[in-house]
C-alpha cells in the first residue's frame, strides 16, 4: 500500500494507540472568556491570538515532509507539484505540512479542534506539551471537535491506553463517527471514546461562538468550524486544503487523499473564492505554523498570505488537473 493510501486510512495511522486583521494576545475582555481565565501563554510551540474577544492558540503537534517526486509519498502529480514548489521558492523538492490543532476558549468551554497524530506517522507528538505550555491541562479541555477520521486528526485522542482528554466531550459528524466505528483496526479507539462521543450535523452550534461548516469531498462528513466573536470570524478549514502552496495555487489538481476528488476540488475552489470575496480569516491546520492568514487573488491565481507575513511570488504556473 502506498504512503498516501496509508495516510488516508485512519486505522494504519493508529497502529500503536498506546504510544505516545489580528489582535495579538493582550488585554483581556469579559466577553467570551471564562471567569478568572489567564491569558494563553505564547512560546515556540504556541501561537496565542484573538478572535474578537475569544482567546485562541495554534498548538504545534508535528510535521510531515513528503518528497514531491515520489508518487507513493505525495498525493499530487509529481511534475506539477515540483513546478509549484520551485516557483514558490521551495528548493528541497519537499512538501512540508505542519500539524497544529487549534485551542479556543469560549466562555466556560475550553475547546480543542482536532487532536493531532499522537506521535504516529513519524510526527513528534508535541501536542500534550504545547497544550500545557499554553496553560491548559488535558483534564481542563471540555470539548474536542474532530474535522474527520484520519489519523493525524484523531491519533491524539488516546494516550497510554486511556483517554488523552478525560473530561472532554468528543464531537464529530455522524458520518465521521460511523467511519471510525466500522474500522476493525480502530476497535480499541472506538471502545475508549464511545462514552464521550456526541455527533453533530453541518450548521450545528457547538458553543455560542463555534458553528460546524460542511466542507465535503475529503472524507464523508468532513467538517470545518467557523469561530465568531463580535465582527471577527475565523474559519478552520481542516483538510479541505492541505498545502499552502499546492492546494492554494492549483486547487484543480487531483489529491489522492480525497475520497471524492471532484467534490473536493469544488470545495477548494469555493473556499478560495469565498475567502477572497469575504476577506475571510483562515486557519489551515496543515499550513506553515501557526496557520493563520488569508487568501489573495492575483493575475496568476490564488496565494496564501500568513498573518504578519508576505506571500512569495506566485508566478505563472500551468498545472493541469489529472
TrEMBL record:
<feature type="domain" description="Metallo-beta-lactamase">
    <location>
        <begin position="98"/>
        <end position="286"/>
    </location>
</feature>
<comment type="similarity">
    <text>Belongs to the metallo-beta-lactamase superfamily.</text>
</comment>
<keyword id="KW-0378">Hydrolase</keyword>
<dbReference type="GO" id="GO:0046872">
    <property type="term" value="F:metal ion binding"/>
</dbReference>
<dbReference type="GO" id="GO:0016787">
    <property type="term" value="F:hydrolase activity"/>
</dbReference>
<dbReference type="InterPro" id="IPR036866">
    <property type="entry name" value="RibonucZ/Hydroxyglut_hydro"/>
</dbReference>
<dbReference type="InterPro" id="IPR051013">
    <property type="entry name" value="MBL_superfamily_lactonases"/>
</dbReference>
<dbReference type="InterPro" id="IPR001279">
    <property type="entry name" value="Metallo-B-lactamas"/>
</dbReference>
<keyword id="KW-0732">Signal</keyword>
<keyword id="KW-0479">Metal-binding</keyword>
<protein>
    <submittedName>
        <fullName>Glyoxylase, beta-lactamase superfamily II</fullName>
    </submittedName>
</protein>
<feature type="signal peptide">
    <location>
        <begin position="1"/>
        <end position="21"/>
    </location>
</feature>
<dbReference type="Pfam" id="PF00753">
    <property type="entry name" value="Lactamase_B"/>
</dbReference>
<keyword id="KW-0862">Zinc</keyword>
Amino acid at each position: 500500500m502506498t504512503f498516501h493510501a496509508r495516510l488516508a486510512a485512519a486505522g494504519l495511522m493508529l497502529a500503536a494507540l498506546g504510544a505516545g486583521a489580528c489582535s495579538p494576545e493582550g488585554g483581556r475582555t469579559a466577553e467570551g472568556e471564562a471567569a478568572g481565565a489567564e491569558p494563553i501563554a505564547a512560546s515556540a510551540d504556541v501561537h496565542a491570538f484573538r478572535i474578537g474577544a475569544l482567546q485562541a492558540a495554534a498548538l504545534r503537534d508535528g510535521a510531515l515532509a513528503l518528497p514531491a517526486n515520489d508518487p507513493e509519498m505525495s498525493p499530487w502529480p509529481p511534475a506539477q507539484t515540483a513546478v509549484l514548489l520551485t516557483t514558490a521558492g521551495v528548493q528541497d523538492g519537499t512538501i512540508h505540512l505542519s500539524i497544529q490543532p487549534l485551542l479556543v476558549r469560549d466562555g466556560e468551554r475550553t475547546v480543542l479542534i482536532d487532536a493531532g497524530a499522537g506521535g504516529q506517522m513519524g510526527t513528534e507528538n508535541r501536542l500534550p506539551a504545547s497544550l500545557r505550555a499554553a496553560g491548559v491541562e488535558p483534564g481542563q479541555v471540555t470539548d474536542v471537535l474532530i474535522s474527520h477520521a484520519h489519523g493525524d486528526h484523531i491519533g491524539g485522542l488516546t494516550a497510554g491506553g486511556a483517554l488523552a482528554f478525560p473530561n472532554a466531550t468528543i464531537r464529530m459528524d455522524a458520518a465521521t463517527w460511523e467511519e471510525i466505528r466500522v474500522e476493525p483496526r480502530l476497535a480499541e479507539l472506538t471502545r475508549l471514546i464511545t462514552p464521550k462521543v456526541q455527533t453533530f450535523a453541518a450548521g450545528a452550534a457547538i458553543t455560542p461562538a463555534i458553528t460546524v461548516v460542511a466542507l465535503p469531498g475529503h472524507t464523508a462528513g468532513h467538517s470545518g468550524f467557523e469561530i465568531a466573536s463580535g465582527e471577527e470570524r475565523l474559519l478552520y478549514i481542516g483538510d479541505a486544503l492541505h498545502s499552502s502552496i499546492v492546494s492554494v495555487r492549483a486547487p484543480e489538481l487531483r489529491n489522492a487523499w480525497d475520497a471524492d476528488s471532484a467534490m473536493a476540488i469544488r470545495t477548494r475552489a469555493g473556499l478560495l473564492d469565498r475567502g477572497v470575496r469575504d476577506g475571510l480569516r483562515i486557519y489551515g491546520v496543515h499550513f506553515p505554523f501557526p496557520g493563520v492568514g488569508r487568501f489573495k487573488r492575483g493575475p496568476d491565481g490564488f496565494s496564501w498570505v500568513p498573518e504578519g507575513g508576505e506571500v512569495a511570488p506566485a508566478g505563472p504556473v500551468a498545472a493541469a488537473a489529472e
